[in-house]
């Protein structure tokens, strides 16, 4: 029965998903962050669970309900997300990095609220760890899937990330189109492996998540 086969695709596999933005504190009342509703990552978590996987969702600050039967850990900063991921990464079969991680953190978080100055101010930022790379470069990495949100050269930039980060797969989306991606309920993806390019047409994020997970399964089975 076709339905039953789909249901069992990831039976007893452990899948970890990062989702949402991270928040880098400036002082007790301010932060730096990225646009990200978390909807794509949460949709993937829901679908993976429906397909039989044991799902761990590491979520930045988003206002979304936890999908049924998914283990959720909430974090704020990129460093916290890195720590949460590595707590249980050794037991994961598949890692899907959907989070919009802040590339930089504020060098020195002020313990007190910064007061408005009469001149311009300068914030010094330092690089955050790359969570996805840290997983893909483990001695025994899980099957790794990255995302790439690009505003130009979508496919070539995504392919460069696939290679540089040593990923099994990357899903790229064009965020210059304001009706898709980010806070939208809809998205379209270009899914790349080292030997293939597949286009997933614009769709709501749940159906798109299902299409993506079918591609992940196909590639995972071959790896
Ligand atoms: N990613 C991550 N940790 C970071 C930055 C990115 O895990 N510190 C992951 C994202 O979750 C995504 C992939 O890496 O799956 C690509 O993120 P992206 O921001 O597109 O790539 P960067 O390598 O940060 O390059 P740039 O922002 O310059 O395009
Ligand atoms: Ca980035």
Percent of residues in helices:
25-40%
Write the CATH homologous superfamily. Answer: CoaB-like
Total DSSP helices: 6
Largest sheet, in brief, is: 8 strands, mixed
Classify the fold: give the CATH topology. Rossmann fold
Q: Which molecules are bound in this entry? A: cytidine-5'-triphosphate, calcium ion
Report the order of strands and helices: HEEEHEEHEEEHEHEEEH
Q: Reading side by side through the largest sheet, how are the strands ordered?
A: 5-4-1-6-9-10-11-12
Task: Count every beta strand, where a strand is a DSSP E run of 2 or more residues.
Answer: 12
Low-confidence stretches: none
Give the name of the CATH architecture: 3-Layer(aba) Sandwich
Structural class computed from helices and strand pairing: alpha/beta
Task: Please give the CATH class.
Answer: Alpha Beta
- Proportion of residues in β-strands: 25-35%
Structure description:
Residues 11-218 form the DNA/pantothenate metabolism flavoprotein C-terminal domain. With 223 residues, this protein is an alpha/beta fold. Helix content is 29%, strand content 30%. It contains six helices and twelve strands. Strands 5-4-1-6-9-10-11-12 form an eight-stranded mixed sheet, sandwiched between helices. A two-stranded antiparallel sheet has the order 2-3. β9 (143-150), α5 and β10 form a beta-alpha-beta unit. The protein starts with a helix and ends with a helix. The model has no long low-confidence stretch (mean pLDDT 94). Cytidine-5'-triphosphate (CTP) is lined by residues 18, 78, 97, 99, 101, 103, 128, 130-132, 146-149, 161.
């Amino acid at each position: 029965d076709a339905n039953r086969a789909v249901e069992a695709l990831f039976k007893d596999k452990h899948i970890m998903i990062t989702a949402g933005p991270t928040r880098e504190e400036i002082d007790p009342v301010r932060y730096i962050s990225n646009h990200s509703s978390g909807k794509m990552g949460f949709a993937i978590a829901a679908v993976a669970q429906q397909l039989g996987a044991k799902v761990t969702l590491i979520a930045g600050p988003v206002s979304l309900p936890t999908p049924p039967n998914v283990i959720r850990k909430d974090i704020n900063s990129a460093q916290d997300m890195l720590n949460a991921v590595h707590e249980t990464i050794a037991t994961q079969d598949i890692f899907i990095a959907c989070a919009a991680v802040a590339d930089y953190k504020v060098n020195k978080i002020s313990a007190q609220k910064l007061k408005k100055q009469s001149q311009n101010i300068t914030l010094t930022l330092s690089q955050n760890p790359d969570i996805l790379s840290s997983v893909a470069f483990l001695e025994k990495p899980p099957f790794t899937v990255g995302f790439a949100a690009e505003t130009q050269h979508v496919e070539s930039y995504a392919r460069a990330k696939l290679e540089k980060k040593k990923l099994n797969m990357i899903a790229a989306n064009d965020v210059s189109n304001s009706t898709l991606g980010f806070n939208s309920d809809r998205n379209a993806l270009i899914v790349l492996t080292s030997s293939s390019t597949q286009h997933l047409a614009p769709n709501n994020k749940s159906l798109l998540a299902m299409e993506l997970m079918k591609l992940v399964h196909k590639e995972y089975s071959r790896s």
